[in-house]
């Protein structure tokens, strides 16, 4: 995507894009993001590994699936890296189950979703700016957290739903 860069950041850039629809020209601000991954890790057929993490933007601790931003790597490599960094587990198998745009009205961020199985404990390696607590719960308990509002971020809700729908997990 081409346009005038108005902000260059560590995680993303913002550009002004001039477009035309029906003869009307307009400028849109677009967040150019490298993409990200979300991982739904299963310890067993029904037990999940989730993380509790403080998120500065919303000033809250959120319950989420492990996730992270692509760092000049393939999405599957990123999924394996983020799973181990955030939870201390490696996956015997990683299967891509979908992808979606998080906010296509203003961002290019594409989220790749993976199912992780046959987990093996290795030890977490959180980044210095991350305060993460690993939790485990059943699949139904995770959906109860969605219903009750304890899990409220879009990527986790979508990733859990894809895992359930596409893999017959509940």
TrEMBL record:
InterPro entries: NUDIX_hydrolase-like_dom_sf, NUDIX_hydrolase_dom
GO CC terms in record: cytosol
Residue span(s) of domain Nudix hydrolase: 32-159
Keyword Hydrolase among record annotations: yes
UniProt name for this protein: NUDIX hydrolase
MF term (GO), any: hydrolase activity
Alphabetized Pfam families for the sequence: NUDIX
Keywords linked to the UniProt accession: Hydrolase
Needed co-factor(s): Mg(2+)
PANTHER family assigned: NUDIX HYDROLASE DOMAIN-CONTAINING PROTEIN, UDP/ADP-SUGAR PYROPHOSPHATASE
GO process terms (BP): nucleoside phosphate metabolic process; ribose phosphate metabolic process
């Amino acid at each position: 995507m081409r346009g005038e860069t108005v902000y260059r950041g560590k995680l993303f850039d913002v550009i002004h894009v001039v477009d035309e629809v029906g003869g009307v020209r307009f400028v849109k601000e677009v967040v150019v993001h490298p993409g990200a991954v979300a991982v739904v890790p299963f310890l067993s057929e029904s037990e999940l590994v989730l993380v509790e993490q403080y998120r500065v933007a919303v000033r809250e601790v959120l319950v989420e699936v492990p996730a992270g931003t692509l760092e000049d790597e393939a999405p599957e490599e990123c999924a394996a890296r983020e799973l181990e960094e955030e939870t201390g587990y490696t996956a015997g198998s990683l299967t891509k189950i979908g992808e979606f745009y998080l906010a296509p009205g203003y961002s290019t961020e594409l989220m790749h979703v993976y199912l992780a199985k046959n987990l093996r404990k290795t030890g977490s390696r959180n980044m210095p700016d991350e305060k993460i607590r690993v939790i485990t719960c059943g699949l139904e308990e995770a959906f109860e957290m969605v219903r009750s509002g304890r899990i409220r971020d879009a990527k986790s809700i979508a990733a859990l739903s894809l895992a359930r729908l596409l893999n017959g997990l509940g």
